[in-house]
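debug: dumping io for the single-chain case to check the tokenizer round-trip. Nothing else runs in this session.
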Amino acid sequence: MNRRASFMVGDKPGDMEAADRAGVEGLLVEDGDLRAFLKARGRLP
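debug: decoded output
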């Protein structure tokens, strides 16, 4: 796995801790619209 190119999406602070432990970027979603969230961050085409 390429950790630099990988990320984890979660909705809780514990998910961000898991991402940190895995050595990947953590993206915290708070509004529930995952598609819009990822698109706004350039993670979707």
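debug: round-trip ok. The chain has one domain: 3-40.
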